[in-house]
Amino acid sequence: PGQGAGLYRQKYEDEAFWILEGVYTFTLNSRQLPVAAGSYISVPRSILHAYTNSGDGPARMLVLVTPGGSRERFYAEAGELVTAQGASTLSNDLPDLSRLLGIGQKYGVESLPVDAPADHPP
Q1: C-alpha Rg value of the chain to the nearest Å
Q2: Where does the Cupin type-2 domain start and stop, copy by copy (predicted)?
């Protein structure tokens, strides 16, 4: 609960989210939408969005990114960064955020600061 992805958008891919368990709150541009298990939400490329597990328990989703290619390269390079720095998803160690954001920009993923307005222009 309370975890998710901050505001971001991607230049090259559309995303589809199938909520398998729990409840999320999605932000699309400046609009907030509660989305529960069994729901589907589509986010076209260049749309600023975020999501948070807004329920009281675990939440799971299936995410489809299309077309393929650049997102896989992003994850591969970002994963190498995390491995190279010894960070683990099982610890509190975090990779160098500025480098991670740079990798995102390289592959067309723009992450915005936490305090950025949800209607931030592209």
Answers
A1: 15
A2: 1-64
Alpha helices (runs of H) in the chain, residue ranges in sequence order: 70-84, 97-106
CA separation, residue 16 to residues 55, 66, 67, 112 (Å): 20, 8, 11, 20
pLDDT top residue among 29 and 62: 62
Please tell me the distance from the alpha carbon of residue 5 to that of residue 52, in angstroms, as a whole number: 6
Nearest-angstrom CA–CA distance, 57 and 103: 32
The pLDDT, as a whole number, for residue 52 is 95
CA distance 14 to 49: 12
Calculate the CA dihedral of residues 21, 23, 49, 17 and round it to 10 degrees. Answer: 20
Q: What are phi and psi of 8, to 5 degrees?
A: -155, 165
Q: What is the CATH number of domain 4-111?
A: 2.60.120.10
How far apart (Å, rounded) are the C-alpha atoms in residues 82 and 89?
9
Q: What is the pTM of this model?
A: 0.77
